[in-house]
Each structure stands twice: as structure tokens, then as C-alpha cells.
Batch of 4 targets.
Target 1
Amino acid sequence: MSRREHQRRYFFEPLLALAGGSLAGRRVLDAGCGDGYWTLQALEAGAEHVVGLDPDPAAIEAARSRLESAGVDRGRWRLEQALVPGARIDERFEVALCVGLMERIGRPVELFELLSGAGVELIAIDTEVSGAPSSFFELSLAPGAGGSGVALLPSREAVIELAAQFGYDCVPLAHDMGSDEGLGDYAAGRRVAFLCATEIALDELPWEEPPPVTPWWRALLDPSLRGWQQPQ
């Protein structure tokens, strides 16, 4: 099974379940759409209309090629090269996908302002997370991050607390991916998916428990162990 197939089972299928089994009748914002894989998944799940935003022109072209090759009605989707956050959005959406986005931006508060302002009721976030054991954003210097080269890597608790500030309940999803090749970041707790909702109850979703905290002296000796211990 490919990484994306694992991801679909991990967070996209639970998202669909919360939405009643499909995205029929819903407008979806794919923030940081990349090559359009999740844009297409949303369309195939019945979304009425999907808008994909990404600052990378090559990604937008790849997404357009993917959607056109799939033969999706052009009236059901639109792609725009735009910074996220930073794009002006005048439309309303019920669902948002933020896959691999939060780890690349330096303005997480503005991201939630954008989503909340667009009326989004259900959000799927899949992101690399900081190992900090409390609500924390770790400075990350990454080429192209948010157009500035600077990103703020959220801890698990930071995502939950930030979502709550905008009226969203938020659950870090448990997974059973194991240590399959290409899934080490999930297995080590360095990557987590979250589902956030304003109206839908999330009580039945399984929570992902954080790995144990790494002693400070071990983190100094081995920076790769910052925050949480790697599972053995």
C-alpha cells in the first residue's frame, strides 16, 4: 500500500465518515493543494466544487494536469497560484483540506482566520509536528516555506489549542500504520493528522497518544530526539 493510500485510510476516510459518507453538496477548499491528489480525492468523493490553492506554479500545473487527465468537469474545480494564508477568499466552504501545509507556513493563526472566515465547518490537517510536550511552535528554516523561508512547526497541543481559539473541536487521530517503509514519520510521532469541526461531534474518533518526552540531556546529545522519544 502506498503512502497516500495509508493517508487516505488514516484521515480522509474518517473525514468522509464525519460528513455522512461523502462530500456531496459541499464546497471544499484544498489549501496548499500541491499536485492536486487530494483535490481529486475530494471531487471523486462527490464534492460540489473544489478550489485548490498553492504558491508553487509547478504544483498548480501538475494539479491541473491531474484533474484534466481524470476527466473531471471543469465547472467543478478551480486552481489558483496563491500564498496560503494570504490569498483573498470571498467564497464560502464547508470543508477544508490542509495536507502538508502547516509545516510550511509561518502564520498558523492567519491560516485559521482564513478557514474560519470562509465558513469552514470541517477541517483535515496532516502535518509534521514539533516534539515539544506542550503548546509550542518551533521555528523551522525551510526553503520556500510560506514564501519566506521561515515556518512555525506546531506541537500536537498547539494545533488543538489554536483550533479551539476559532471555535473548532480538534482530535489528533490515532493510526495503525506501523513502521512500513515510507511511514517512519508517522510511526515516530513526528507527523500527525487532525480532524477539526465546529458542529460535528468528534467524540468517537480515536485519539493519538503522544510518545514519552525525551530527557533534555538526550536531546542535547542527539537533536533528532528533540521533544519526544523515537519508538524502539
Target 2
Amino acid sequence: MTKNVVVISLACVILALPGITAAQDASVPAAGLDWYPFEEAVDLAKQTKKKVLVDVYAAWCPWCRRLQSEVYTDEDVQSYVREHFVLTRLDAENQEDSLQFKEHKLTPADLAVGLGAQGFPTTVFLDEESDYITRLPGFIDAGEFHTVLGYIGSEAFVDQSFEEYSGRLKK
């Protein structure tokens, strides 16, 4: 009897593994937003005069999963992103694929490094012409992320520091 319980329990665990693995894979982007392939996002940003938000991730990264599940699903974040940004993602460990960025042909991993990603997640912001604005390393909660989005999306970064911008919001 005990042997049967162990076998059945083991079978249940094995059958559940694909679902657990998929839920733990940060390569699955948040629902409710339009995520574009990198080159397409760059072209679309130029056409729509929006900035590019680049989510640099690794599939195994737990903080990357949290960013997708807790921050990009926030209604305020989604609303602001839709209005001001074109979204794309780079798998920082992908050495297989090839991307064209400006005059360079790079792997997603090389492009991630070129954009300054040193850890995961890293959020990189590019302007409408694909010029680098800044990067945000690590995970922050939805409220703080929304503040960063406002700072970049409103172009406040052009003439004030983030501290000045966020300080004005708190008053």
C-alpha cells in the first residue's frame, strides 16, 4: 500500500513539472501589453514617435518573472506604457539569434551588454531614434516603476534629475 502511494505521488509530481517549469520561465511576457521583436519595435517607435522600453531578462531569473507578473500587469503601468512606449524584450543569454541595430549585427546577448545590462532584469530606455536614454537595473515595485516611466515618458529627464522629478510628485 505504501509503495503504491509513493508511486502515485511521484507520478503526480512528474506530470506537474511542465506546468511548474512554464510558470517559472521569465521568457513568457506579461499579458495585456503588445511586445514586439526588437527590430520591429525600433521601427515602430520611429513611426509612432514613442520611446522604446527594452526588457532585458534571463529565462531562469526569478526577479524577471516578478517584473512580468507583478509590475507589467499593473493597470497604471500598462496604461502609461501603451501611451508612451513601444515594448520589446531581449533574452540576455541568447547567443544564437542575430539582430540588426543601427549598423551592427549582434546577438541579443551582445546587444544586452552593449545597452549596459550587467544583471537581470534590466530595463533599457531608448528614444524615438533608438538612441540610448538610460537603464534601470533590477526589480522595483509597480508604483516606483510607474514613476520612472513618467520621468522618461514625459521627457523630464532632459532638464531635471530623477530626484527633482520624484520630489515634485510627492508634494
Target 3
Amino acid sequence: MKTEGLVEDKKMKMQSFIIISAIVGLFACGSKQETPQPYIKPVPTTPTDKGWTFETNPVWADDFSYTGKPDAAKWSYDIGGTGWGNNELQYYTDNINNASVADGKLTITLRKESMGDKEYTSARLVTKNKGDWTYGRFEVKAKLPTGKGTWPAIWMLPTDWEYGDWPKSGEIDIMEHVGYDQNRVHITVHTESYNGAIGTQKGNSALIETASTDFHIYRMDWTPYAIRGYIDNNKVMEFVNEGKGTATWPFDKQFHLLMNIAFGGNWGGAQGIDTNIFPQTMEVDYVRVYKMIEK
């Protein structure tokens, strides 16, 4: 009888333990369901200027100390006559008549000649997948073309377009010049919030009296804090990261370089074109890219 009583007592204790454990577990689960963790959206923060500097030896460069077509290990071509989103009049080729290297310089040549349905040819060189960078110092020494309708540019586009199509992923214009406003050189950035399509682009310009007769150094210093543009080491433009997200600052991804001469188009041809100016050239003495030193 005592043994049976002990067994029965143990059974009752075990059942009580099981019931209590179940109740505790139920309350615990109920507690988790009743107090979900709220999602807190990260708030963009305005970066501080850490005074970033740049290495003194380039990580990528072309000094054009050879002869022939541009170095295929460093440059590719955009080809075609689509108007390039700006109603441009030229057809871009990979022809040596439009882009050639000799006497220590690259020459991009705009010509009056038919190709496809266009009456003009030119070249647009790009470093995409051969030179792509996030932050750095970009320096190009160049002499610009002249003549109404010409539209040379030294600029940068996103390599992967991670924030969407233009202008969401950004554009950096190191140098732009339009022939109807001779010697005025523009430095500009475009983003979703600030872009030329809606007249809110951020930039500045400077009058360079010998833009088409002498070589000048066009430079862009790009850090997490700001993009600063220089001509002959004189600061012309500064665009500071406002810390409001990618609509104003998509400049934390890889970009690559482009160099070209367009003809006509929305801006280049805004005051007409001169069909008696050909050929026209942009000569480039060197292109150098310097790595930003992290802090």
C-alpha cells in the first residue's frame, strides 16, 4: 500500500509539473506575441569632413606615351548614333580617325562625315570595367575644341546603376564646354533631386580665356563628404553630402570615366550649329586617378 501510495504521489507531482510548465510556456509565448519589436528606419546622418587626402602616385593612369589607338586595356568605346538621350547629331565610332594617340597625347576628333543616319562622327571613350572607383582624385589635362555646336565632356557615370536609371544613380561632370559660350567651362553633378532635366543640377562655371588654345588641368576630388571641382588647381565647385539619402547623394558606388565630343543636341545645339568648323579636336595630355586615403 505504501509503495502504491508513493507511486501515485509521484504521478500527481509529475502531472502538476507538466501542467505548470505548459502554463508558463503559454504565457511566455503569449508575451512574445503581444510585444513585437518595432522596426526603426535608419535615419541618414550628415557626414563630417575628415580632411581626406589622396595618394601621390596614381592607381590608374594613361600618359599616352605610345602610338595608335587608345590602350585597349584601359579604354573601351561607346558606339552608335542614338542621340544619347540629348538629341546629339554625331555617330560615335571606334575608328582611329576619331580617337588616336601620337606625340604623347590622345586626340578625339569630331568630323563631318556620314555614318548610319548621322552626318558627323566622333568618339566616346570609357573606362567601364577597366577603371572603376569609389572616391578618389581624378585629373585630366586637356585642350578643348571650339565652334558652335561642339560639346566636349570629361565626366563620370555609375558602373552598376544600383540606385536606378539616370539621374537616380548620379553623374559627375568634371568638365563640360559648349561652343556657343566659348571659354566658359562647367563643373556639375546630377542626382535624383538635383539634375538638369528639372533645372536643379548643382554646379558652377569659370571663364578660361585659353580653354581651346592651351592645355588646362581639370580635377575632381571625391570623398564621402563632398565633390569638389578644380581648374588649374583653383576650386570652382563644391557639392556637400547633405546626409539625406541616395536622392541627393548616390555617390557611394563605383563610377567610371568618359571622354567625348558631342555635336549639337539639347545643350550643345541650343543656339544652333556651325557646319563649317570641321574637323574639331579635344587633345588630352594625360588622365590620372589617385586613391583616397581612408581615415
Target 4
Amino acid sequence: MTYEIKEFEYYLKQEKRLSNHTVEAYIRDCTRFYEFVNKYQNISKVEALEKKHIESYMKSVSKQFESSSVARKLSSIKMFIKFLLLERMIENDIARHIKTPKKAKHLPSILSVSDVLKLLEHVEGDSVLAKRNVALIELIYGSGLRVSELLSLSTKDIHLNHMYVHVIGKGNKEREVPISEMAYQALTTYLKDARPQLNKYHDQMVFLNHLGKPLSRVGFYKLLKQWGQVIGVRDISPHILRHAFATHLLENGMDLRALQLLLGHENISTTQIYTHLNQKTLKKMYDTIHPRSKE
């Protein structure tokens, strides 16, 4: 089955044109499925796969992971099975009638405006890395980029004269995202005064680490955790800064459809989770302000 998984990887990259991060997730899920059926059911060839083998694996992973992770693993396997059908390596879609577990809707953590300001005050400074850090925070909070979109920006994607950045989102979908005045200033300072000192290897990536190499997701995540501990905000990540962008815009009257376009969501149902946050905030304001909200 390792050969078929390798062919599946090529298909995802070359024909489906999925991002490296997405392809890695699909292949990791399929590899673990193969390891399970090989170890516990002695299955090594795709022709021997049956619906019961997938169900057995899903039963196993459902005991270890949340429903969202289980749903993703099943989605990967279903995609793999469809690929095998397409290539005529198997005859039947054995995964077709396996139901995807319902994902529990978790409301994202809320970062207040004052928390974001505290974070920016903490990272500010005259050093090269401080200027980079301010640009990172201003851009991810000011434009609501995914961390993958933020860290994959190259210099050609930055259009300061027209106040926008060109990003490649999920499924390699491209969009132009406006930047705030503060992000514009931070980016201008970083690109002019700091990045040239970091760029030892003539790299085209915008955000570089102290060694002059592209800043990684893990590197940025660790920085945020360190800063969060210092300013007393435990729950902070690139994803939560993106949530803050969306929530604060909605609280100030942003149209849901416009927010969907800014965030790069394919379906508006994904964006609607932020309306729950907004309603929660409104209820809290109502309880505090309205004279008849309390006895």
C-alpha cells in the first residue's frame, strides 16, 4: 500500500494543487491507517481493503481523538479511496457509506483589544527583531491572515503603495487583503530598516528569523507563547489573533459577507461562528447597561 500512498501524494500535489501543509496531513492520515490495518488485520494490498477495515480503524481513533480530528482522518481516507477508484486500483467505493462524525463547534478564545495592545507594547523596540515582531503582530491582527499565509509571504506579495498583500490561502486560492495604517507603518519600517540586516541568504520570504532563514510556524508559535506569559495572557496563538481580528471587526459593525471575503472562507457557515461571539458580547453589554436586565 506504500506505493499507492506515494502515488496519492503525487496526485494531491500535481493534480489537485493542494498546499504542502494539506498534502502532508492527508499522507500522514493515510499512512497511519495503513499501519493500523497492516498490524491488526494483516492487510498490505489495497485490493484487500473492505469497509469493515475502515470502520475498525475509525472506532479505534475515535477513542483517542476529538470528533474534529476523527472527521479529518476519515476525510483523508475517503479521498484516498476515491483516488484508488479513479486509478482503477479498486472496484468499489468502500468508504462511501461511512458517516462522518459531527464536529463539536468550539467557540474560539477571545483576545481583547487591550490584550492586543499589551502584546504590541511588549514587543516594541529599536532592535531588528523587535521591528520584525511588531510587523508580524500588526499584519496578522490587522489583516486576519492565517499563519501559513503570513509566513509564506514573499517580498513580491507586499504592495505597500496600494495598501494590500497578496496571499495564497487554502486550496491555493489567491486573494488580496487590505492592510491597516499601523501595519503599513510597521511593514515599511521592518522592510527598510530591519529585514536587510536579517537577510543573509538573499531570501525572498518577508519574515526571517535571527539566523536569516524563513520564520517557521513553530518558531512564531513559541514567540507568542513566550510573550503571552510575560504579559499575562496564557491563551495566545496565531489562530487566536486571527479570531481577534474577526471578532473586533464584527463588534464594530462589519458585514458578515465582507468578513468572509477578508478571511478567505469558502463557506459563510465557517464565518458565522464569529456571530456567536458577537452575540455573547452583546448579551454581556446588555446585562451591564440595561436598567431592567437585573432585579
